[in-house]
Amino acid sequence: MKNRSENFNYRPFVVPAVVALIMTITIIYFVNNPGGAMGARILTYKGILKMLRQHINLVVIASSLAIMTAVPLGILITRQKFRVLTPIVDSIVNITQTVPSLAVLALSYVFLGIGFKTAVFALWLYALLPILRNTSIGIQSINEDIIDAAKGMGMTPLRILTRIELPLALSIMFAGIRTSIVISVGVATLSTFIGAGGLGDLIVTGLSLMRTHIILAGAILSALLAILLDNVLGSVEARLKSEA
Amino acid sequence: MGKKWLSVLLIVLLALVLVVGCGQTDDGDDGADVKGTVKIGSKEFTEQLILGQIAIQILEDNGYEVEDRTGLGGTTVCREALESGEIDLYWEYTGTAWLVALGHEEALTDSEEAYQKVKEEDLGNGMVWLPYAQFDNTYTLMMNKDQASELGIETISQLGDYINQGNEAIFGTDHEFAIRPDGLPELENVYGFKFTDVEIMDIGITYGALRDGLVPCAMGFATDGRIADFDLINLQDDKKFFPVYNPSVVIRQDTLENMPEIEQLLGDAGPLLDTETMTQMNYLVDIEGEEPEDVARQWLLDNNLLSN
């Protein structure tokens, strides 16, 4: 009889691998077909990979920071003692996301100057809401009866949190993280305006001189990056759901 | 009670939408005899906005109806809008047109020669170039005045030597300069050095980035008012890499044939603009916070180009 764990499930890797392959082909295509002398100056392997690396760095660092702040914060505002803080925290984080991303970036520049750190700060602000919301909603959506039962069994609040609330809320929390990361890939294209690099460099440079090839290279690569991340995270989310 | 508030809110929102939507075309209906409509565009930076305003106000003052499309976009956006007829005219720089619009590779370094060559060739494209302004709004490589004198750097060649000796230098540039034939890659070629790293950013903030010491060297436009105000210096282009960039009004031939008076009205204005004047006007907008409209108007009044 075949033991299920002996068969390596490669299904979740198929789409990401295909997307990564398409990204590679895209890069090779545009380096060899830059659409003119100006395109050739920016569509080089070195250049494109540098911008791609900058973009990924921006998204990964800002998202990690957002997870590290928004998850604890989200848990905090569901605790009895801090219920009073909920509307305040909610409003603040709400504002950071309803303000248009370009405005958040520009304001960050005004106070913090140009560069990578400023862009990460702006991206971080923008990434908080989905994670915070989903964390608190995920925890609040757990059936009261389960918590009561746990209390009845004599579990401490901490154990309730780690053994019951977090595991049950995990898949909703994760959905928030997934949304946040995918949005960040898009917002990160704006960091080109404040000297933080990224694929936006390609898009805006192409736009400023109407060089379609350059625009497409930047736009296609960022779209593919978003699709790739979304798919990978989706597989993780499905895994979490099935184990709940 | 709740429903009433909701309807009031909806009506207010609807009213807002209508007001904003209908507020787009607000041309003064005061001229009884409107001679024609002219669509005027410009690029997005301060100098272009001022030049655009100069053209707008001269024509309006002379009875033309003008559609203000200034701040349209970058070089190519404006050029393509001109070619497609979306705008009738805008101010373009001879050097830029020669390299970017007309697709040549070598730069022209004499103002008169550049103007004549561009004018002749563009006529074949149905575009007319009116007399050019005296100032050369060339690209410039800038450094912090103090830092440059500390390092003894006054020319681009000296900067190149400094970097080739193994020193680091990051360069702040805007999107166009990063790939134009009169831009960074060719400059590095001609001068024989490469910046350690390049940070692309919006043209509006390269000056501030230099002033705040965030980059040691950055590009800008020579007539920008902030160069003096931020204590920056322009490195001398000792190898004469940059072409000349004299601005003049480029107008569609068919527009000019319909309204031939424009040639003289705007053609007279161009040659009156010199480096000092333009830099001062840029300064008033960028540093003193005045509006391009007002600065343009003041200049026009000072030069008796408006009837009132």
Structural description of this entry:
- The complex is a heterodimer of chains A (244) and B (308).
- Chain A has 244 residues and is mainly alpha-helical.
- Chain A is built from 10 helices and no strands.
- Chain A has helices at residues 11-32, 37-42, 45-76, 86-98, 101-112, 116-140, 144-152, 157-187, 200-208, 212-243.
- The longest helix of chain A has 32 residues, at 45-76.
- The two termini of chain A are 27 Å apart.
- The model of chain A has no long low-confidence stretch (mean pLDDT 89).
- Chain B is of the alpha/beta class and 308 residues long.
- In chain B, the strands form 3 sheets. In chain B, strands 7-6-8-5-9 form a 5-stranded mixed sheet. In chain B, strands 3-10-4 form a 3-stranded antiparallel sheet, with helices on both faces. Chain B has a two-stranded parallel sheet with strand order 1-2.
- In chain B, strand 1 (37-43), helix 2 and strand 2 (65-73) form a beta-alpha-beta unit.
- In chain B, helix 2 (46-61) crosses helix 15 (292-302).
- Chain B is globular and about 70 Å long.
- The model of chain B is unreliable at 26-31 (pLDDT under 50).
- The A-B interface holds A 37-39, 41-42, 109, 113-115, 192-195, 197, 201, 204-205, 207-211, 214 and B 73-77, 80, 100, 105, 172, 174-176, 178-181, 183, 185, 199-202, 205, 209, 212, 214-215.
Give a quick account of the main beta sheet of chain B: strands, pairing sense, barrel closure.
Answer: 5 strands, mixed
Radius of gyration of chain A: 21 Å
Residue ranges of chain B: pLDDT <50 for 5 or more in a row? 26-31
Number of contiguous helices of chain A: 10
What is the approximate shape of chain B?
A: globular
Give the spatial strand order of the biggest sheet of chain B: 7-6-8-5-9
pLDDT averaged over residues of chain A: 89
Based on helices, strands and strand pairing, what is the structural class of chain B? alpha/beta
Q: Which sequence of SSEs, written as H and E, runs from N to C of chain B?
A: HEHEHEHHEEHHEHHEHEHEEHHHH
How does the overall form of chain A come out from the CA principal axes? Answer: flat
Q: Work out the strand percent of chain A.
A: under 5%
In percent terms, what proportion of residues of chain B is strand? Answer: 15-25%
Task: Give the strand tally of chain A.
Answer: 0
For the largest beta-sheet of chain A, the strand count, sense and barrel status come to: none
What's the number of extended β-strand segments of chain B? 10
